[in-house]
Amino acid sequence: MESAIPAHLETPRTRHKRVPDDYQPPYPSFVARYKPAVSRVVMAYFGVQYGGAAPAAAMDALKEIAGLFAVDGGPSHWDRARYVDQCACENVVTVAYWDDLARFNAWFARAREMWTGRKREGVGTFIEVLRPSVARHETLFSSPDRPEGIAVAAEGMSGEVQEHAYWGGMRDRLPLSQTDAMAPGGAPELIHDGARLRVVAHDNLCLIRSGQDWSDTAASERKLYLDDVEPVLREGMDFLRDDGLTIGCYANRYMQVLAADGSVSEKSYGQSWWKSLAALERWAESHPTHVKIFGAAMKYLSTLGPSAKLRLYHEVTVAAADEQFFEYLNCHPKTGMLTAVETVGA
Amino acid sequence: MESAIPAHLETPRTRHKRVPDDYQPPYPSFVARYKPAVSRVVMAYFGVQYGGAAPAAAMDALKEIAGLFAVDGGPSHWDRARYVDQCACENVVTVAYWDDLARFNAWFARAREMWTGRKREGVGTFIEVLRPSVARHETLFSSPDRPEGIAVAAEGMSGEVQEHAYWGGMRDRLPLSQTDAMAPGGAPELIHDGARLRVVAHDNLCLIRSGQDWSDTAASERKLYLDDVEPVLREGMDFLRDDGLTIGCYANRYMQVLAADGSVSEKSYGQSWWKSLAALERWAESHPTHVKIFGAAMKYLSTLGPSAKLRLYHEVTVAAADEQFFEYLNCHPKTGMLTAVETVGA
């Protein structure tokens, strides 16, 4: 048993963790381990948005960004997912990962100009970037042998960690929680830069990406997941998308991961932006929509026991104000962090 | 909105509460407020145990203790409840409350000799007393207008308090949590004193009494409670009674409150002894039996909304070692805190 907080990020505490030192989680979980030299990680979400059938400009954009990923300074890993939003628009989001901020910074300027620097016919584009210090970021995996998301950029996985399977584990896994309550500061603001809209959020904005992978499940387990768990999960995701603002959730996307050939895979993830880690904690712990998800997942996992082949993971970042970047071009006002600011004219 | 911790028990914190200062609970709850001069409260459980029909000695004992309650120094309030235990024995437990330790101490010696000082034909008797400092004790009520248990000895009820409706609220309501993790110390020990068995537990032993009162519910709400909630509650109570030791629950009784005329009322409570507050927290937050109870209660309350007439309350004590007293005479080895120590011969 090891701590989710790597040894080199342990600091004298001014804040306690929520469980006693002899706490034993009831089942194993694992976290991504970066090389100790890694001080910041980067996840950059490049979205393209359109209504109806995919315009040629959308296809071009996806090809171009993939091309840019391949040049020097590009990400060590990227993935792609799709999502039909509340305005019935298709959104294809390509997510790229770095474990070296200087490398990302040198690479990014050209990509930004390419992505949101010029309008593309019939499509909107957006960029959402977090580049947190490793103290402001945590992951959790049900199995140590298939990393997803930013964890692919890590050196490997931990052994079994202690801080999970209780409410508050997410906070306790964040190294910064040793000394900081991570309270949010201020409100998101909108900046017009020609046709580009930038959102400047605030200290301690929180991003969670929470994923599931049912590709290894056999018939009966798959049926149980798709019939009993997925609909409840979708209901919660829809609530966050449509009514999240009332509880501090700025935006939510329930994404289908795409395979390399562009087809829909048997993986999905919810990606949501929150006013604070505390707001996310309250939803997860006590909102009826998540209590239902939690209940369905518990029933599923207790029915299957250790034979369950469903894989679960999440990554959570509580970003400082200067670790965030949100830019939207020609997107509708319910796109990502635009939802958090006053609706604007075209 | 006020803190559950009364102003005169606020101390400079070395430990944080689990929610930010601007946390707003989604529905109102209330706590008992003692007079600021009250430094300790006392709850004394006097049990009588027998198999089959009530022996005359049991009836005599109940009359005698009621008589003693009426003498000078007796409790300001008492109630009575019954419970058929896992050995199919009837247990009738009379609970008395004081807000003055000196008064209780002066009164108790005679009661103890009367209750566990001599064997009664065909019955076992036991005494379980907690006399916590007010910093080690908290209550919670869904309505402010009908106190139960120790709260009847309080001066009144608070206004709406902040620290509830989130996991960790119980700990945050305990004034001692401002500075102390309340970790358990040591293991319970058995002491033979002639035929009397005393259990000396350990620092930070935890007692929760968690009650429900459906006497005000009309037909459809009553049916919902009795059909959908009560069976799930009973299942959880049975788990704690039969298998609680595996998760740090020493003993649990699911009691039916008796009316003044001895008939069964429409009130019940679970009363359980725990190795630590942390063990109780883990069960409540993540054990399948309590997750089911929580889910059933949430569904019930969200169906009924503010029109619900069901009343809920609890009281929790985390007792210092010298604030506890457990004594058993002629009881079976699965009685109360005897469950926590090695089974002993007659």
Overview of the structural elements:
The structure is a homodimer of 346-residue chains. The first copy, chain A, is of the alpha+beta class and 346 residues long. Chain A is globular. Chain A has helices at residues 56-69, 101-116, 169-173, 219-243, 277-286, 288-304; strands at 32-33, 42-50, 77-84, 90-98, 124-130, 137-141, 156-157, 189-193, 196-200, 205-213, 249-258, 264-274, 311-319, 324-329. In chain A, strands 6-13-10-12-11-3-4-2-5-14-9-8 form a 12-stranded antiparallel beta sheet. Helices cover 25% and strands 28% of the residues of chain A. The relative contact order of chain A is 0.20. In chain A, helix 5 (277-286) crosses helix 6. Chain A binds chain B through residues 15-16, 18-20, 23, 26, 165-168, 181, 183, 276, 278, 281-282, 285-286, 288, 291-292, 294-295, 298, 302, and chain B through 15-16, 18-20, 23, 26, 165-168, 181, 183, 276, 278, 281-282, 285-286, 288, 291-292, 294-295, 298, 302.
